[in-house]
Write a structure and sequence with these properties.
CATH class: Alpha Beta
CATH topology: Nitrilase/N-carbamoyl-D-aminoacid amidohydrolase
Number of strands: 18
Distance between the termini: 37 Å
Radius of gyration: 18 Å
Order of helices and strands: EHEHHEEEEEEEEEHEHEEEEEEHH
Shape: globular
Structural class: alpha/beta
CATH superfamily: Carbon-nitrogen hydrolase
CATH architecture: 4-Layer Sandwich
Largest sheet: 8 strands, mixed
Number of helices: 7
Strand content: 25-35%
Helix content: 25-40%
Number of domains: 1
Oligomer: single chain
């Protein structure tokens, strides 16, 4: 299976972001012929104020249900479904703002080649921190948190779902490994301040400890948050179960592609059976 992680520079302009995603996914499929394509976190609307985020959010059909008429979701939902069908891929839709009524949710939606919805995951760990430069982030002021560990199948491979800040919580990744994951996906909008020191280190650590492939699609560059400039780190990458970075995007928009080798996964797990040796303390 070939996996592509797409790197975008989204803004608060939802229409422009949708057009960019269409362009980048289509170009990546034409050039690299992946089976699974991953978009970054909040690729539909990054930045703006609370009202902008609320306006960009989408009400979603019932999970796993048929998509019919007025129950068809919003423009991002429709685009992701169309991209999966048009290119005959599994499209892991990074994350978008889901309108859950009284709360928004940072939500991943996955579509198969027939346009069927295969998975839906709400981000569990919310980014409420103060960065080294003093910039404060409070994701919980806008978003509710999810509670479910989610996997799905792409071909013969089990894929685990996480989003951005989840990357810092190894227990979620171990839960996904126990649920059968061979690849764990991380759409992200990592800040420049934290990304330059922690992004690759954390991805490689999660790959090593779970013996899974990690496919991390990130946003890159400048956007405006309530009128203030913010910067995300980018460096979308794919790491193998030994912790090697096997594909990586440069600065700017683009993508990176790697082949997932199940024989390598099996060999790493056989030669170092971590899950057999794990002791709860």
């Amino acid at each position: 299976m070939r996996v592509t992680v797409v790197q975008m520079n989204p803004s608060a302009d939802k229409a422009a972001n949708l057009a960019a995603a269409d362009r980048l996914v289509s170009a990546a499929v034409a050039e690299d012929r992946p089976d699974l394509v991953v978009l970054p976190e909040m690729w539909t609307c990054l930045g703006g104020d609370h009202n902008t985020k609320r306006a960009a959010a989408e009400r979603l059909p019932a999970p796993g249900g048929a998509v019919r008429g007025g129950d068809a979701g919003g423009k991002a939902y429709a685009l992701m479904r169309d991209l999966a069908q048009r290119h005959r891929i599994v499209l892991h839709g990074g994350s978008i703002a889901e309108d859950g009524g009284d709360r928004l949710y940072n939500t991943t939606i996955v579509f198969g080649p027939e346009g069927e919805e295969r998975a839906r995951y709400r981000k569990i760990h919310l980014f409420d921190i103060t960065a080294p430069d003093g910039t404060g982030y409070r994701e919980s002021a806008t978003f509710g948190r999810g509670t479910e560990v989610v996997t799905y199948r792409a071909g013969n491979t089990t894929i685990g779902c996480t989003i951005c800040y989840d990357l810092r919580f190894g227990e979620l990744y171990l839960a996904l490994r126990r649920a059968g994951a061979e690849v764990i996906v991380v759409p992200a909008a990592f800040t420049l301040q934290t990304g330059k020191d922690h992004w690759e280190v954390l991805i490689r650590a999660r790959a090593i400890e779970t013996q899974c492939w990690i496919a991390a699609a990130a946003t890159w560059g400048r956007h405006e948050e309530r009128g203030e400039p913010r910067f995300t780190y980018g460096h979308s990458l794919i790491a193998d179960p030994w912790g090697h970075v096997v594909a990586k995007a440069s600065d700017g928009e683009g993508w990176a592609t790697a082949r997932i080798d199940p024989a390598l996964t099996a060999r790493v797990r056989r030669d170092m059976p971590l899950m057999d040796h794990r002791v709860l303390v």
